[in-house]
Amino acid sequence: MGLTGIDDAARALSQALANVNVKCDFVSVPTHPTITKLRVLSRNQQLIRLDFEEGFSGVDPQPMHERIQQALGSIGALVLSDYAKGALTSVQTMIRLAREAGVPVLIDPKGTDFERYRGATLLTPNLSEFEAVVGKCQDEAQIVERGMKLIAEFELVGAAGDAALSRG
């Protein structure tokens, strides 16, 4: 599930995913082009990558909410990857819909505003993303201490009421 334009890139993406039996349910946005990346290679080595991305800010989130709502009865988890391109501007509604259906919400966050992910089941920041939110950690004990505070502060609790902080 995601946002695309109505263009050749969207059609190519849909076809490539269908070719490997990946079911996709894109919301097609006629006012925005599909985000694309062009890799320039020479002798199997990437020389440069060009990103063509206007993002999807200002797009009505309701079609995404409807698709999520329809899928919740048949999925084991809602996995959201935030690339700050506009698809998750209403992430709180997405979290609420999933939690009301008893579906865990796993999020790969972007940026330092973890408040927007409040109520998710699991966040998966890397160390630099984590430290951008909680500050530089001197050792593993400090990582654990600050991680547990983050879990409590943003109500990141699993379905069984448990919490975990994990390396890797």
TrEMBL record:
Domain Carbohydrate kinase PfkB: 1-154
Transmembrane segments: none
Coiled-coil blocks: none
A single GO molecular function term of this UniProt record: heptose-1-phosphate adenylyltransferase activity
Pfam families assigned: PfkB
GO cellular component: cytosol
Name used for this protein in its record: ADP-heptose synthase
Species: Klebsiella pneumoniae
Gene: hldE_2
